[in-house]
Write a structure and sequence with these properties.
Blueprint (H helix, E strand, L loop, with lengths): L11 H5 L2 H7 L4 H13 L1 H17 L8 H16 L1
Helix pairs in contact: 2-3, 3-4
C-alpha cells in the first residue's frame, strides 16, 4: 500500500478485515499510520467508517495475556485427553 487512495474499504467490515488497519489501530507501524491518517482525512465518510470500526474494535478486542509454561502444559494435556475420548 503506497497511497491512501489505494485503500478500498467501503464498510466497517472491510476495515476490520484489513491487517494494516488493525496495525494502525494498535499503533504498531508508523508508516502505515501515515497512510491511514491520510485516508481518514480524505473524506467525512472515511472518517465515520474509521471511527465506527475503531469503536467496534475496542469492544471486541480481547486482551491477550501471556501464559506460563505450566498453564500451556495443562491446556495441552486437557486437549490431548479430549482428543483421545
Amino acid at each position: 500500500m503506497n497511497h491512501a487512495k489505494d485503500i478500498k474499504a467501503k464498510t466497517v467490515e472491510d476495515l476490520l478485515a484489513d491487517e494494516s488497519f488493525l496495525d494502525f489501530c494498535g499503533q504498531t507501524n508508523q508508516l502505515k499510520n501515515i497512510f491511514w491518517k491520510k485516508w481518514i482525512d480524505e473524506s467525512e465518510e472515511n472518517k465515520k467508517l474509521a471511527e465506527q470500526a475503531m469503536s467496534l474494535l475496542k469492544v471486541i478486542r480481547i486482551e491477550e495475556k501471556p501464559m506460563g509454561f505450566s498453564e500451556i502444559e495443562m491446556e495441552l494435556n486437557r486437549l490431548l485427553s479430549k482428543l483421545q475420548q
